[in-house]
Design goal:
two-stranded antiparallel ribbon; 402 residues; four-stranded antiparallel β-sheet; disordered C terminus; alpha+beta; elongated; 53% helix
Length: 402
């Protein structure tokens, strides 16, 4: 029983801490932007469902923690629901009620009655806060600890590999992949993994000259340090220098934070592009279950590698905040997708309102929000299915049944 509880703690606690940080920053972005613009907020909630803890501050804002810790929301005064989905009949009735009781000044504090640009600023502040969090974390790590760095120089070429067929030689310095500059071997590895079965141009420097080599990374099974097996692109080259930690000054560290955040977004966009064009399978998509398992695996790996408790806690904290930065970028990016019920969907409707000088018809918005909610639920179910398959849950259950 003790082993089960310990295992559960390794998988659940780190995940909840990481997700809690990312969600809190996202919702605080909405909250602070709204308060800065003089909007009235009714509730700030971490988690959904019935509150397990709640309190009200001096300004009248209710702060609560819901029992389902998979997100959060800011409910503005006058909102009919937690998603700030506008209902025209509700808004009209609210306006008449405020005017009837002589409280017209309150209209200016309600989110739904503010100018469209202000609503757009408050909506965009959530995802932007996630990007800022990632930049801060990446920059702090680069400054305080350093960043793994290895020049993108070829140390060895595997015989009969895609690299050997393309003419790669030891000593080649890779400068760019498909026109995108490469600074380190770690970036080169990511580029190769994402280009399986795709003819790719590699700009290399050899003996002072620049040449272009065309190669097609082969899709192969790769076992990562966490013991997971993925089918990704393999070129067949090895680094020629040992991994080192590169330290940065304060200004350089901020630059690296911005660069790493941008690289994460670009990698996500590149993968989605390949996914929608059929060149990549959807098996890499993951949901909350997969993220929880990943954080647990990182915690277990850290425990196995740490020589003492102090090292374990230090390295675990470092890996968890780094994971928080990556997840923060992902959540910020996903929320900007133009899907109704997500922040990007709200921004899409606001863009229409700004151009047409009138809101989109209430019925059309209602249909859009229902369709968006259905799409989000389908994507979550699909990601959870991937997680269950990856964790071999169905195979285990089948084995128990036989």
């Amino acid at each position: 029983m003790l082993d089960i509880l310990q295992t559960a703690a390794f998988y659940v606690v780190p995940f909840l801490l990481v997700l809690g940080l990312v969600v809190t920053v996202h919702e605080l972005g909405h909250f602070w932007a709204a308060r800065a613009l003089g909007m009235s907020v009714e509730r700030f909630s971490l988690g959904f469902g019935k509150a397990i803890a709640r309190w009200t501050d001096k300004s009248g804002v209710e702060w609560r923690i819901g029992w389902l810790p998979l997100g959060g929301y800011v409910k503005f005064s006058g909102d009919e629901n937690e998603a700030s989905v506008p209902d025209q009949d509700h808004l009209d009735a609210l306006r008449r009620e405020l005017i009837a009781r002589g409280d017209e000044k309150a209209l200016n504090t309600y989110f739904q009655f503010r100018p469209v640009w202000q609503r757009a600023v408050v909506t965009a502040a959530g995802p932007l806060s996630n990007f800022v969090l990632a930049i801060v974390i990446f920059a702090a790590i680069a400054f305080a600890v350093g960043e793994p760095y290895t020049p993108a120089r070829v140390g060895g070429v595997v015989p009969n590999s895609a690299a050997a067929e393309a003419g790669f030689q030891p000593g080649d310095l890779v400068l760019a992949v498909d026109g995108d500059p490469i600074d380190r071997f770690q970036e080169l590895e990511v580029a190769i993994k994402l280009r399986s079965d795709t003819r790719t141009a590699f700009l290399v420097e050899r003996a002072g000259e620049r040449i272009t080599l065309m190669a097609t990374p082969r899709r192969q099974e790769i076992v990562n340090p966490l013991g997971r097996t993925d089918r990704l692109g393999v070129l067949g080259i090895r680094s020629d220098t040992a991994l080192e930690l590169k330290r940065y000054g304060p200004v350089e560290a901020v630059g690296r934070g911005v660069a790493q955040t941008s690289e994460t977004i670009e990698t996500t966009l590149f993968y989605l592009g390949r996914l929608f064009t059929g060149r990549e399978g959807p098996e890499q998509l993951s949901g909350p279950l997969g993220m929880a398992h990943l954080s647990g695996d990182l915690a277990k790996l850290t425990r196995e590698q740490a020589p003492d408790t102090e090292s374990f806690l230090l390295n675990l904290g470092l890996r968890m905040v780094n994971l928080a930065a990556v997840i923060s970028v992902g959540i910020g990016f996903i929320n900007l997708l133009p899907i109704p019920v997500l922040d990007g969907g709200h921004l899409l409707f606001y863009a229409y309102e700004a151009l047409a000088r009138r809101p989109l018809a209430a019925k059309v918005q209602a249909v859009g929000y229902r369709a968006g909610l259905a799409l989000v639920l389908v994507l979550m179910l699909f990601a959870t299915w991937n997680d269950l398959q990856r964790l071999r849950v169905f195979s285990i259950l089948g084995g128990l049944g036989t």
